[in-house]
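Please, structure for the following, as tokens.
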Amino acid sequence: MMNRRASTGVDLGHGVHSKPSYEKAEITGANSHFEALLTRISGEFMVLGFLAFCVWVMNQSKGFYKLAEAVDHKPDYYSLLHLCEDVHMFLFLSMVANFCLAIYLIHTCAHWQVLFARFDRPELAEMYHIESYFNVAPPSFLKDEESWHKLKKYFIKTSPLTIDEDFDFARYLAACLDQILTDIINFSEWTWAMVLFITSINLTLAGAIEYSDIAGLPGVMWQQIVMACISPLLAIALSWHSSSKIFTLIKKSSNDDFSVTKDTWGETMSYETWLVRVMQALMYVVCYSMSHLVAAKKYWKAAVYGDDSAYSIWIFTLMGFYTSLYLAAGVYIFPEAVMNVTVAYAMPPYVDEDNKETLQACLDYDIANPKHWKKVEGRLKKKAAASRPASRQASRSMSTSDPVDKLVDAANGMVVGTPGMVVGTPPRRLEPIAAVTAKVAPAPE
């Protein structure tokens, strides 16, 4: 390891401290992500409440009536009012669906972060016998633990900074993933701009093209189906492309080929951030399409009370289609795509300035916290203790009737976790007094 000292924060006066140089290397954790998401949800609900207030003011001031007069009552006053109220509710339900996807994404990625730590320190799981705690299906680019070590080897050999063999590769990838999750939670302004751009294209096509009914369904609805299908298809394509890049690096590492093809754009911009934003914007289109159909009164009225049975079947079919598309994309496709894109573009030659700062932060973190793995071991000890059957000691105390034997069993229970005991070595168990007496006493003639 290079001879450096990491900054742990400087007192700037008045109780204000500068941020430590390794702040980017500190893993956020699922709980902190959920707290940030809850804050974001509160902010979005405030915005939606403001929109409801604007609609109310517009209605009270007869703004919709004046607007209807300006367009020769096509649409009329009531149609304009209900249109704004419906769109407001569709936006609300879309954000709720989007936040549900974010919750599942955080949950899945947090498990993968723990799995990466297990790959980097396999002895911890073996030492504390809690392999089931790490029993989670890995991302598609990790076929086995050997693939992880080959990928780590390639990164160490080709890193833009000098790092040694003991580099905490799991922390680096987990920190990069935390930054992507934070951007997803915040739903950046650029993501909203992409949503507006996609919606503008959809509206322009709907207004410019004279659609006819296709198979008993309006052509505009077919256009909406196509727009909604773009999201999972793009996510699948990006996930496959990214995993292919990772497999290539693993193969090169197996052949001791540590050559790097220079990518000027990859070193200057964060590919992973922008690709994930595009996927998030398209996923929001899926959420809105589902909400627009499921929450619209006119579709339920036509499906349940309408005279056209074929149209009713189409409406229920589309409701099931959008719901299935939402679940499939959000549960299976989107998390895998986010992980693959993040890892692929955090590797050379795509290590941009943010990645370099994260890499440097990981090196500084190791220097400032040389015993940070001891904290991990402490947590694992608690997990191991919690995983032991609570009834083990009770069954031992009931296994013998002799008071001395009960005392021995109690001593055996106290031996487990005794300070100074070699970790991973099973404690020596004292034998019941009856068994000891039988060994020492002479056999009857």
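Residues 196 and 281 are 9 Å apart (CA to CA). The chain has one domain: 24-369.
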